[in-house]
Amino acid sequence: MIVSELALRNWTKLPARERIITDLTMLGLEVDDVAPVAGEFNNVVVGEVVECKQHPNADKLRVTKVNVGEAELLDIVCGAPNCRQGLKVCVAKVGAVLPGDFKIKPAELRGEASNGMLCSYSELGIAIEANGIIELPADAPVGTDVRDYLQLDDVVVEIGLTANRADCLSQLGVARDLAAKYQLPTKFADFKQELFAQASARVTIDEIFPVELVDDQACPAYASRVINGVNVNAKTPEWMVQYLARVGVRSIDPIVDITNFVLHDLGHPLHAFDKANLHEKIIVRAAQEGEKIVLLSGETAELKSNTLVIADAQGPVALAGIFGGEHSGVNAQTQDIVLEAAHFAPLAIVNRARQYGLHTDASHRYERGVDPQMLLVAMERATQLVLEICGGNAGPVNLLGQIPDNTKRITLTHTLLEQIAGIGYSRQQVIDILTGLGCYVTANDDHTYTVVTPSWRFDLEIPEDLVEEIIRIHGYENIPTEAPVAKLAMRQFHEADLALNRVKDVLVNRDFQEVVTYSFVEPKLQALFHPNEPTLDLPNPISVEMSQMRLSLFTNLYSTLAYNLKRQQKRVRIFETGLTFVPNPQAELGVSQELVLAGLVAGETTPESWNHKAQAVDFFHVKGIVEDLLAITNASELGEVRFAPAQVAGFHPGQTAEILINGEKVGLVGKVHPALAKPYGVSGDAYMFALEAKAISQTHVPQVQPVSKFPSNKRDIALIVKDDVLVGDLVAAARKAGSELLTDVQLFDLFTGAPLEQGTKSVALTLTITASDRTLEDAETNAEMTRVVSALTAEFGAVLREV
C-alpha cells in the first residue's frame, strides 16, 4: 500500500513528517520505504509560451519566447513536439540546478540563443509517463515556483499491511488511524455532509438503466447511475495526475482516472460502462460454466460457475469486483456511461481473480473487505468529479438490494484490558481512544464498555481485539520496560520417575536407531497382526495405504524393516515410541490412546567383523534386551516379572511370550510369523517386542545397605522337573522361599535327554547365601538350601538330581 503525505494531510491535521513515519510503524502499519515525489531542483517556475515558431536551422526544434513574470521575455529553444503558443509550462531559468546536478546555463542551439529550458516530468525527477514537456493548467500563475505550485515537497510512503487491515487500503483509512493516534478529527464527516447536500443538484435527467440483481448473497447491494454527454477526451486535471502518480497509478483517461482516484482516496472500487455497448439491462449473476469474456487487457477468459459476473442480455461484460470487459469499456468514442458502485461479499471474490491469473486493485480490496457504508459516498464523489471534468447530465442513483450493516456490538471489561495490557488506563482514556477509532462507546456502571464497531473495521470481533486497539493507539512505547517479577517454585519431582529418554538410551546403547512413522496404516497389512479386531477408519484418508489408525506399532515397524532390506541393510535394530488407537466405547471420543515402546531386531546380533563369529538373532537375544529395559525400572519391586508362552496373531506360536508383572500383561516379545514375510516383502527372520509406557515409567530408588565384611557362601543345586515348568517360575519361587540370608539365585545350567526320563529336564541353580554380621556356619547354609529345595519340591514336584 502506497500513501502520499499530502493526501493524508488532506484528510486530517498531522505533525511533522518524521513523527508520522515513526508512528505509522508503531501503529502496526510498517513503513517499508519513504521516497520523495520529485528530484532535487531549484529556480524552476511557471511560465507561459508567448511565441512559438519553427527553428530556422532544425526541423525538430522550436524557438520560443516565454513569460516567467519578469520584465523581459526569455528566448528558449525547445525540441518537445507539444510545445505551442499559449501553453503554461515549467521553466528552468538560467542558474537552475536540476536532478543529477544538471546546471542550466545560457546556450546557443543551431545559431539561436537559449536562456533556459522547458522541462518534462522526467527532467524534474517526477515519475509520470508523458511525451514532451509538462502542460500546466491554463490558470497556473506565471512566475510561481513549480515546487510550490505542484506541491512537490511531498513523500510517498510504502506500507506493509497485514491481511486484517483492509480498512487501511486507502488514503482515508491510513489518515483515520493517524488521527486516532493524535486524538484529532478527520474531515470525512464534513466532506460527506457537503457531498450529499449537493447530491440532488447533480441530478438533471430521470434516466435509469435497468438492473436485475439475481445473486443478492454474493452482491447484497448494487448501485448504478447514468451520466449522458460526457467528454472522455477532456484532460485529466494536473492535480489528479500528480495524485495518481504518487500512489503508483498511471493516468489513462479522465473516466478511468476518476474511478482510480476514488478507489485510492476512499477505498471503494468503481467501474464505468459504455452505455451504448450495454444491451437491454445489467444482470448481476453467477457465470455459466464455459462462458467467455474478452477482458480490458485483451485476454479471453473462460469462466467457471463459481464466478460472479456483471452481464447484459447478450452475456458477461465484467468479472464482478475484479476486471472489466473490453466490449463494454469506456473508449474514445464513448458519450454516455453507466457508473457502477457495488458491495460484493468477500467470499464471492476471494481466489476468483487468481484462478484467471489476475490480481487487481479492486479484487485486492474486495477479498479483504470493503466498507459497505462507503458505497453511496463513492458514487456521489465520482459523479461530482465526472461532471466537473467531463461534463454531462447525471441521472438518479439506482440502488438494488440492501447495504449491509456489518457493525458489531462488543462488551469490554476494564479488568480484562488491564490484565492483558499490564498497565492501568482511566475510563476516559478508553472512551477517547475507541471513539477516535470510530467506535460508539457506552461506559457502564459495572466497569464495562459497550462498544459498537465502525463499519470499516472488519477485524474487530471480540473484546481482545479492542484491547489490542487501545494498546496500539496508546502506544507500545508507553508500556513501561520493567523486568518481570516471577516467583520461582521448586518443580515437583519424584525420584522414582523414569524419563522415557532414559529408557531410549538403553536401546541406543545397544545399537538401536529410533524411527518415527505415521499413525496411519494400510488396513490389509494391519489385519495380518490384528485379524478381526475393531479398527478406527479415517473418513477422508490421504491414501488407501494410510486409511486406518494403528492398533499397535508392529505394522509400521515391520514395513520399515522391508524398506531397509530393499536397500541392502541386512542388520536392522530399530525402535519407536508412539500412541496406539484402539476403539473403546467407554473411552473419551470412543478411542483409547496408549503410549507404547516397541522395537524390532533382524539380522546378526553384532555388526560384521573379523574378530568374532557371526551369530543370528534369536528369541533369547531379544528377550535379553527386554530384560535390560525392565532392569532399570521398578518392575521387580512391584512384584513378579514373568515371560509366559503366548499365541498371538502375526507371531510364531513357539517363540512368543507375554510379559507379565504380577500377572498383568504389560508387553509382548516374539518372532514374527514367517507367513507375514511375503505380504510385507520381508526376507529372513525378525523379532519384535512392545512394552506399555506406563510399565516402564518408574525406576527403583536405591536403598543404602552396608557391604558385608564376611564371605558369602555359594551352593549349587540341580533339580529334575517336568518340561512344562518354567525356569523363571523356579527362580522366582526359590527367591521367595529363602530368608534374608539368600541374596541371589541364578540359573547356570539346563539339561535334557538321557539319562533323564522323557518329559523331564534338569535345572541347575546357584544359591548365594550371605550374612552381613557374621560368617555363616555350614548348618545355617545347609538349612537355607533345605528351605529352598523343600519349597520347590512342594510347588513344582522338583527332585534333587543325584550325581
UniProtKB/TrEMBL annotation:
Superkingdom per UniProt: Bacteria
Listed cofactors: Mg(2+)
One example of a Gene Ontology biological process annotation: phenylalanyl-tRNA aminoacylation
Pfam family, one: B5
CC cofactor note: Binds 2 magnesium ions per tetramer.
Principal location class: cytoplasm
PROSITE patterns per UniProt: B5, FDX_ACB, TRBD
Location in or out of the cell: Cytoplasm
Residues of the FDX-ACB domain: 708-801
Catalysed reactions, semicolon-separated: tRNA(Phe) + L-phenylalanine + ATP = L-phenylalanyl-tRNA(Phe) + AMP + diphosphate + H(+)
Cellular-component GO terms for this entry: phenylalanine-tRNA ligase complex
Domain B5 residue range list: 405-481
GO terms of molecular function: ATP binding; magnesium ion binding; phenylalanine-tRNA ligase activity; tRNA binding
Residue span, TRNA-binding domain: 38-147
Keyword terms of this UniProt record: Aminoacyl-tRNA synthetase, ATP-binding, Cytoplasm, Ligase, Magnesium, Metal-binding, Nucleotide-binding, Protein biosynthesis, RNA-binding, tRNA-binding
Binding positions (Mg(2+)): 459, 465, 468-469
InterPro entries, A to Z: aa-tRNA-synth_II/BPL/LPL (IPR045864), B3/B4_tRNA-bd (IPR005146), DNA-bd_dom_put_sf (IPR009061), Fdx_antiC-bd (IPR005121), Fdx_antiC-bd_sf (IPR036690), NA-bd_OB-fold (IPR012340), Phe-tRNA-ligase_IIc_bsu (IPR045060), Phe-tRNA-ligase_IIc_bsu_bact (IPR004532)
EC number assigned by the record: 6.1.1.20
Subunit record text: Tetramer of two alpha and two beta subunits.
NCBIfam families in alphabetical order: pheT_bact, YtpR
Family: Belongs to the phenylalanyl-tRNA synthetase beta subunit family. Type 1 subfamily.
Protein name per Swiss-Prot or TrEMBL: Phenylalanine--tRNA ligase beta subunit
Phylogenetic classification of the source organism: Bacteria, Pseudomonadati, Pseudomonadota, Gammaproteobacteria, Pasteurellales
